[in-house]
Specification:
The chain is mainly α. It is about 75% helix and about 0% strand. The chain has 6 helices and no strands. The longest helix has 24 residues.
Length: about 140
């Protein structure tokens, strides 16, 4: 099962790199890739390792935040967190989100230190990818 999880994480990392590119250039994350990946992972996790379904919790929390304040984050970011949680589980997804927040903080702080305009809207996929990479390195 460890080999399957590493293959899933590697595939997710490749997807996240693509999502980072499109989030930076177009400010969108493709539904054509996220929905099928979520469905396949959901079916796989239900059949083989249902404990990973707890990884849906961070996505559910972000979905609630999105529903309450839609301008706070994008729907693509929510779907990406759902995908991430299904792939790596609850604990690792929370750590990846905390790493993402740290990277966004460093990015915005660096912009402020360089006397650049601090963005009110930041594409989160690249920072989530860095958080996932931090998890992979720690494994």
């Amino acid at each position: 099962m460890a080999i399957v999880n590493m293959l899933l994480i590697t595939s997710l990392l490749i997807l996240c790199c693509w999502f980072s590119y499109t989030d930076i250039t177009e400010r969108r994350i493709s539904n054509k890739l996220t929905y099928p990946a979520i469905i396949v992972l959901l079916v796989f996790r239900i059949a083989c390792s249902p404990e990973y379904l707890w990884g849906l919790v961070p996505g559910a929390v972000l979905f609630l935040i999105f529903m309450i304040t839609p301008r706070s984050l994008g729907a693509g970011d929510v779907k990406l967190v759902v995908l991430l949680g299904l792939c790596i589980g609850l604990e690792r997804a929370v750590v990846a989100l905390l790493l993402m927040c740290g990277f966004v903080f460093l990015y915005q702080g660096g912009r402020r230190l360089l006397s650049m305009e601090v963005s009110s809207s930041v594409p989160l996929a690249p920072f989530l990818t860095l958080g996932l990479l931090g998890i992979v390195v720690a494994l």
